[in-house]
User: Fold this.
Amino acid sequence: MDIHWFESLGSTQSYIIEELKTSRLNAPVCIGTLSQTNGKGSRGNSWIGEEGNLFISLAIERSMLPEDLKLESSSIYFAFLMKELLASMDSKIWLKWPNDFYLYDKKIGGAVTNLIGNSLVCGIGINLMNAPIGFEKLDIKINPYDLTKAYGELFAHLPTWKQIFSNYQIEFENSREFFTHNNNEKVALQKAVLLEDGSLMCDGQRIFSLR
Assistant:
């Protein structure tokens, strides 16, 4: 996967989407930056972009993804790939449903996905070196470019959704003490049922992970 690296960008997500729409870039491709001034989080929130942390967005054609990966499962899939990579480096990071990176009980990052034409775009932000008040940073030392390169290499041989889901099912139990958001309302995960496509059944309501 080609990686385009910058000293500073407003938002890797906004940049890659604009470049894809104008065909100046084509998937598979990854955009990364040392600092981000207008980062985009989930539900329209901003993501503080302190230098030294991870700010990347990548685009993959849907045809390159596993056949059993549904669009609704993509945020879990991309995020869990990153989580597994960092865990292989001895980090205690875990993935709160559906796409928030946690260290113990503190958030350290997240992922957000968008479908742009035939390309699936995923933006990932992780506090590698600095964390705002109330958040945490990663428990291992790694250069953001080196992490991006290692993550990009995973896309040469992607696991199936079934393989990812079988591992995530176990990890999902860590999410039960937390909440998620559905239509701007907080939903407790204590009694949620994780379905095979990555969605949840909560109090008779089905909640999807795509965002």
